[in-house]
């Protein structure tokens, strides 16, 4: 324990093991809540949904064990039934927070079950702080792991389960600035190719298609080279293809572009070709005929570009 933490952390550690008073459930274990919980979580086990089967095996309708904590939650208003203890089980967290560790994140929850809960059981629980770690530094920041132990009892004061709930109270690490998006040169956009650029913003690679004969063409143009029809629509490409040819651009150096800049002529599996950047590959490992897969590169000014990553050992 560092000297700067010694006084207040000693106060916090003094609360380890102290048992906080009994908290009672609002309602007894009941079939409607079991059914709704199972429906919400997609649980279809007939043991919990078929009352006759459960009664034949256990003498009563039973609840899924993982509902253990659900029966004793305070509810939206944060209030517990009359007779519940009013002492504060979160004193340790408040001490740590007052000393500069204001952020919190749940780490994990471990539950242990001693028997099935039956319809009509009325639960209660007590809690205690089981441990407070030494100061730790994580990717989130610097702080303390705090483990709370909850013990659950039935109406006869028999222990039916327990839960360890671990939190991390921390001072956030300095926020790293998000890298700026590359400021690429802007393309020339016209009425003929606007669909192509709009499609990229929607993470789709769209290829122009002749409405008359179905011929695909790229780059987009006003007329079909096969039948000369002026009517067209577009289809979404799969994003799969091969490297038909390529070039590595060394000069000129343009803003937002890698140096050197590998550019491929990609033959899509739909049969058309597209000029696009190659990513994830060393320039001396590029191979004609290598299979590639489409990715989308987000750039500044809402520009999205198609790029292709070689597959199968070309990287």
Explained architecture:
By secondary structure, this protein is an alpha+beta fold. It has two domains: 3-172, Thiol Ester Dehydrase, Chain A; 194-310, OB fold (Dihydrolipoamide Acetyltransferase, E2P) (Beta Barrel), CATH 2.40.50. It is 15% helix and 34% strand. The strands form three sheets. Strands 1, 2, 3, 4, 5 and 6 form a six-stranded antiparallel beta sheet that branches. Strands 10-11-12-14-13 form a five-stranded mixed beta barrel. Strand 5 (141-153) and strand 6 (159-172) form a beta hairpin. The two termini are 48 Å apart. The model has no long low-confidence stretch (mean pLDDT 91).
Average of per-residue pLDDT values: 91
Uncertain regions spanning at least 5 consecutive residues: none
Which structural class do you get from the secondary structure elements? alpha+beta
What is the multimeric organization of the chains shown? single chain
What radius of gyration results from the CA coordinates? 32 Å
Keywords: DNA-binding
Domain ChsH2 rubredoxin-like zinc ribbon: 197-229
InterPro entries: ChsH2_C, ChsH2_Znr, FAS1-like_DH_region, HotDog_dom_sf, NA-bd_OB-fold, Thioester_dehydratase-like
Protein name: DNA-binding protein
Layout of helices and strands, plus pairs?
Layout: H1 6-13, E1 19-24, H2 31-41, H3 46-49, H4 51-58, H5 91-98, E2 103-113, E3 124-132, E4 136-137, E5 141-153, E6 159-172, H6 194-201, E7 206-210, E8 216-217, E9 232-236, E10 240-249, E11 261-268, E12 273-278, E13 291-298, E14 304-310
Domain ChsH2 rubredoxin-like zinc ribbon: 197-229
Protein name: DNA-binding protein
Keywords: DNA-binding
